[in-house]
Amino acid sequence: MIETDKKKFGEGESSISERFNEHKSKSRKIALSNSAERKVKLRRLEQSILKYRDEICEGMWRDFRKSSTEVDLTEIYPVLLEIRFAIKNLPDWMRDEPVATPISLFGAKSNIRVEPKGTSLIISPWNYPFHLLFAPLVSAIAAGCTAVLKPSESRPHTLKVMKQIIDECFDANEVAIVEGGVDVSTELLKLKFDHIFFTGSPEIGKVVMAAAAKHLTSVTLELGGKSPTIIDETADLNAAVSRIAWAKFINAGQTCIAPDYVLIHASQKDAFIEKMITRIEKNYGAQPADSNDLASIINQRHFDRLSNMIKSAVDGGANVIYSGVSNTTDRIISPTLIEHVPLESEMMKQEIFGPILPILTFEHKEEAVDLILSKEKPLALYVYSKSKKNIAYFLDHTTSGGVGINISAAHIGNSNLPFGGVNNSGIGKSRGHYGFMEFSNQRAIMDQKMKSGLGFLSPPYTSGKQKLISFLMKYF
């Protein structure tokens, strides 16, 4: 166990404020840390994660029946990749960047320096409790910020392990976990953090942004929305089915970038459904509700929400093509395929966030685009096609936080790409260098030589100065 000052965040408002002030004070020192010092912290975090790997897997199984392989793939490994990517690139990220200086400012040198924003608050959700807490923490550490972590209280066994890791790796006045529910989050949001990183729903994102606005605190909001999947008449259905099934049903569909609904060319629909049923049963067996590879729904409220969503759609004229079987004891909903879903139904208005896949058809690509544009801008858009012309059309006529072409959800695994939404699906980007920059201030620095001057800018404005300014305006 690493010897640290083990002052913990307490339960009351006064205790939270007291510890926040300690972070404020410590942030000045941490801001001066160099890349080598930050790398030490990241390597320490990496080793602790590997040390507690089995406990993380066990905690997630106890919390929501998530298989250890899926935990490794979607929770632990992405964080390790982020750590290793930051360690490799941190010296370059921290280096001052020289930029050009216009001739009108002759004699000056210009550069951009990245500096830590300071104290940060990271609020993470329940669906990927480890990944979505530790990935932004890596960015905060790399940027030289302190971090208060507020994870979801609904994963108690996973939370216990995460606390062990944080307590073992960091002083509490540098990185600390705060436990509690909405009341604790509310008190934290009253404090004047320098940056807030929130992952969750658009509805709560608006609350976070409103609270941040009172202090003019910068925010990164990773939200969600209905991410569409387009399958045109040229698509390779075997590849599409395999990749969509993985991205949609992993974590029981409780993934912000999961394909929310399919828009498929009418000529491909029947073959797609047949292949998808075969793929589901290959992945989860003939009785998917009994599979140990299918995670449970987070709690009874969300289980009831999804069950009612199916019932309401069916009452409105939808048809369940496959499954819909539930295991109420373990809160399992089998992968469900549904067609003829009314566009005004909750299933087509709200993010599903569960293992339910509506299938809609189109004849002309313009129809698919019109449907997508009728909704909020999505976090992700997926296009399955062999036609470069069609792919270009869908990209040119839509917008989204990220895009997968003949792939789904995998773009989050590339630390060289920015990850995030647009408007309702998010503000700001994360991962890799983009995450580092979210926790950093870009400071413009201009160094003017003492012997050089900008006298022509100062009164009195003689005719000679006017001619010089006119010359600059015309040619430079």
Could you name the key traits of this structure?
476 residues; alpha/beta; Aldehyde Dehydrogenase, Chain A, domain 1; 2 domains; six-stranded mixed β-sheet; globular; disordered N terminus
Summarize the SSE layout with pairings.
Blueprint: H1 13-30, H2 35-51, H3 53-64, H4 68-94, E1 97-99, E2 108-116, E3 119-123, H5 131-143, E4 146-150, H6 156-169, E5 175-177, H7 182-189, E6 195-199, H8 202-213, E7 218-222, E8 228-231, H9 237-249, E9 261-265, H10 269-284, H11 300-315, E10 319-322, E11 326-327, E12 332-333, E13 336-339, H12 346-349, E14 356-362, H13 365-373, E15 380-384, H14 388-396, E16 402-405, E17 426-427, H15 432-438, E18 440-448, H16 463-475
Parallel strand pairs: 3-4, 3-6, 4-5, 6-7, 8-9, 8-15, 9-14, 13-14, 15-16
Antiparallel strand pairs: 1-2, 2-18, 7-17, 10-13, 11-12
The largest sheet is: 7 strands, mixed
What are the low-pLDDT stretches, counting only 5+ consecutive residues below 50?
1-8
Q: Which second-level CATH architecture of the largest domain applies?
A: 3-Layer(aba) Sandwich
Percent range for β-strand residues? 15-25%
| Helix and strand composition category | alpha/beta
User: Which fold name corresponds to the CATH topology of the largest domain?
Assistant: Aldehyde Dehydrogenase, Chain A, domain 1
pLDDT averaged over residues: 93
The number of distinct β-strands equals: 18
Query: How would you write the strand order of the largest sheet?
Result: 10-13-14-9-8-15-16
Our Rg estimate from Cα atoms comes to 26 Å
CATH class of the largest domain: Alpha Beta
